[in-house]
């Protein structure tokens, strides 16, 4: 979805109604927050910080301007309205390790795609089984393995779309329809789940680990893997099985001897790796090994990523260029920096505590048992998730609020944070909630009903896996 304004009439830019309303609402919120006297529970600074928070959410959801612009504006408003004493105090989120780490991982993911290493890995991992359902499972397994070297779920989806189309052509028409529908559900809904297994697996895991590290306690790369790999694999497997059942993928039709196919999208599937592909592969393996070793000796997780990007950027290698840096999704990076800045100001001004006090009056938490409190907090996170086009942005907003409630009511924050990640990362009700789903819907046979219905299925599965992990697995390893 483009950050640019679309639609021109008579040489003048015409804002879509949703964007115009969003801009108007944001302005009204800021005016009210800056002029009216605060309620007893809020300070003046807290009310103004809260007004900036709500206005920023409206701008990010309706997108009348690019994410970069609305994010910079939000930080500037914190200072301009007097919520903080200096601009540096308003921009503390941009000094977070998360902002730089996410930038580095995006560059490494782009490097993998730019040398076609993702295509090579996909061709070597993927083999066609004899039935549509078996082939669907092969695709899912290959996506899971590829997630170890390719953090972007979107890039994995784009890589496998032509391969899925090629595989589908080997089956009869009736079997092909079910296989394609199931495969595109896997590419869109199931594929992003794999990114949660490792701390460096994608934006959602990075955001969650940073918030856990600053709010609860530091967590290492290895500890994250121990906590998250088994639940993620279980959830991934269950979601894949359900995708086959949901799409009624045939498990009896076999591929005839005359239907032998080439799985590659271009070139020869047995072609050797190029020099650049070998170099990128070695650098990525070195980064993973460094993350593992660093977890035991105290090396910051960001340093191996810095070293990897540096190696791939030197002139003699030239895999990462200035064009690659310019093409990075700066919008989501600025959004995360701005959101972390706003949340820091909300905390220092006492606004978060005031919001929690109000919500506790509306929701009788004191009457709820432990598991009911957890269910309500996860439901709040899911409600926030539905409004955002990226899971990482939704977690940045939802997780600190949920953890504040957990601290107030004595709920163990670490398993709650991991639960929020599992459920939020597996919930896609609207196509724009996840870019991989949006692309799969555009390229495949999925309808809006398919997206919403299977999104509910994965959400329920994630809640079940999270509950099982909380009760059985996580107590054993913590």
From TrEMBL:
* InterPro entries the record matches: SLC13A/DASS
**Membrane topology per the record?**
Multi-pass membrane protein
- What's the main place this protein lives? membrane
Print the keywords alphabetically.
Answer: Membrane, Transmembrane, Transmembrane helix
List the molecular function annotations (GO) for this entry.
transmembrane transporter activity
Q: Where in the cell is it found?
A: Membrane
Source domain of life: Archaea
Q: Which Pfam families match?
A: Na_sulph_symp
Q: Name one GO cellular component term.
A: plasma membrane
Q: Which residues cross the membrane?
A: 20-37, 49-80, 87-108, 139-164, 184-207, 227-247, 279-297, 332-356, 368-386, 417-439, 451-473
Tell me what this protein is called.
Sodium/sulfate symporter
């Amino acid at each position: 979805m483009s950050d640019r304004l679309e639609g021109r009439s008579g040489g003048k830019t015409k804002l879509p109604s949703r964007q115009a309303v969003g801009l108007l609402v944001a302005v009204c919120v800021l005016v009210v927050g800056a002029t009216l006297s605060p309620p007893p529970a809020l300070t003046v600074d807290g009310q103004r910080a809260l007004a900036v928070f709500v206005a920023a959410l409206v701008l990010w959801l309706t997108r009348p301007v690019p994410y970069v612009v609305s994010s910079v504006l939000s930080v500037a408003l914190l200072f301009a309205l007097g919520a903080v004493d200096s601009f540096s105090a308003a921009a503390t989120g941009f000094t977070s390790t998360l902002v730089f780490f996410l930038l580095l991982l995006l560059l490494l993911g782009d490097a993998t795609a730019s040398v076609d290493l993702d295509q090579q890995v996909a061709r070597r991992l993927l083999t066609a089984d004899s039935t549509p359902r078996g082939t669907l499972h092969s695709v899912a397994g290959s996506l899971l393995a590829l997630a170890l070297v390719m953090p972007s779920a979107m890039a994995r989806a784009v890589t496998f779309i032509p391969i899925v189309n090629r595989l589908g052509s080997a089956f009869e028409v009736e079997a092909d329809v079910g296989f394609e529908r199931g495969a595109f559900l896997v590419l869109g809904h199931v594929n992003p789940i794999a990114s949660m297994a490792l701390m460096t697996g994608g934006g959602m895991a990075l955001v969650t680990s940073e918030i856990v590290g600053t709010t609860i306690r530091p967590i290492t790369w290895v500890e994250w893997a121990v906590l998250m790999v088994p639940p993620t694999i279980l959830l991934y497997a269950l979601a894949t099985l359900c995708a086959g059942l949901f799409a009624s993928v045939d498990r009896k039709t076999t591929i005839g001897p005359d239907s032998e196919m080439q799985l590659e999208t271009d070139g020869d599937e047995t072609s050797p790796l190029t020099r650049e592909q070998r170099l990128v592969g070695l650098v990525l393996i070195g980064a993973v090994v460094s993350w593992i070793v660093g977890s035991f000796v105290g090396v910051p997780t960001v340093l191996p990523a810095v070293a990897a990007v540096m190696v791939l950027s030197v002139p003699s290698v030239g895999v990462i260029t200035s064009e690659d840096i310019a093409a990075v999704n700066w919008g989501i990076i600025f959004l995360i920096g701005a959101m972390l800045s706003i949340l820091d100001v909300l905390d220092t001004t006492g606004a978060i505590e005031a919001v929690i006090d109000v919500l506790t009056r509306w929701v009788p938490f004191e009457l709820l048992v432990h598991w009911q409190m957890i269910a309500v907090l996860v439901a709040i996170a899911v409600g926030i998730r539905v409004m955002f086009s990226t899971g990482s942005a939704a977690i940045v907003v939802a997780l600190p609020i949920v953890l504040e409630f957990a601290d107030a009511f004595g709920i163990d924050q670490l398993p709650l944070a991991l639960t929020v990640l599992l459920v939020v990362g597996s919930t896609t009700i609207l196509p724009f909630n996840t870019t991989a789903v949006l692309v799969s819907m555009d390229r495949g046979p999925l309808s809006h009903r398919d997206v919403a219905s299977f999104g509910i299925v994965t959400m329920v599965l994630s809640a079940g896996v999270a509950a099982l992990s909380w009760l059985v697995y996580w107590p054993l390893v913590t």
